[in-house]
Protein 1
Amino acid sequence: MKHLAIKKYYTSFSIDSVEIENNVSSEQIESLDKELDELFKKYNMTLLEHDTRFIPIEKMSLSYCEKCNHLMINRDKNPTKFDGDEFYSDLGFIILNGGTDNGMDLCEECLPISHRWGHFS
Ligand SMILES: [Zn+2]
């Protein structure tokens, strides 16, 4: 039985609003996409799709977990996360829920289970 394997890669970089408005990153992203396409062809893979989303860091309370360094949204500060917007639905395992515990921003995996957003500790 033949299968089609679809593999996802996620990467990030910092950029400010002025740079986004001035398309500062577009040339660099186009260059990266071109190189990736060539690399995928080398491994008999096809680059099917790619997109870039800009998430305002402070507005969304986006940060890295202070314990494991996983990307997270502090749900204590942003209770609605992406407000159910389907545009972000595939980022659930890239950007975890999180909260503040004893002054530390921790993801759902590092928060104590007694915390509202703690799941596993
Ligand atoms: Zn963590």
Note: The chain has a mean pLDDT of 91.
Protein 2
Amino acid sequence: MALIITDECINCDVCEPECPNGAISMGEEIYEIDPGKCTECVGHFDEPQCVVVCPVECIPKDPAHPDTQQQLLGKFFKLHPDKTPYLPAASAAGDTAALSKPAPTEGC
Ligand code: SF4
Ligand code: SF4
């Protein structure tokens, strides 16, 4: 599931540089998250970095973008084709399937 910034955002600028996917940018009035780039930090960190740093806790999950873990990982591979994902939880559980790269789709 991608995350979304609500109108409680105070434009403190803290989250934007923390996003490993470049998914956060300034919108018309407040910061916004590009759901096509937000992986909930899957592949990079244990937890969403924007949520960790936000002082007003205004970054919930976006029900309009209910990505599965595999879909989030698919976004990671699309954004970072040459990187190996960091998946501590999956690795610890022996979930090696989560580490496999999705098969390329036609037209990509
Ligand atoms: S959860 Fe991670 S990838 Fe998504 S917007 Fe926040 S920092 Fe970026
Ligand atoms: S950290 Fe929170 S309050 Fe600050 S710009 Fe990001 S979403 Fe807005």
Note: The chain has a mean pLDDT of 88.
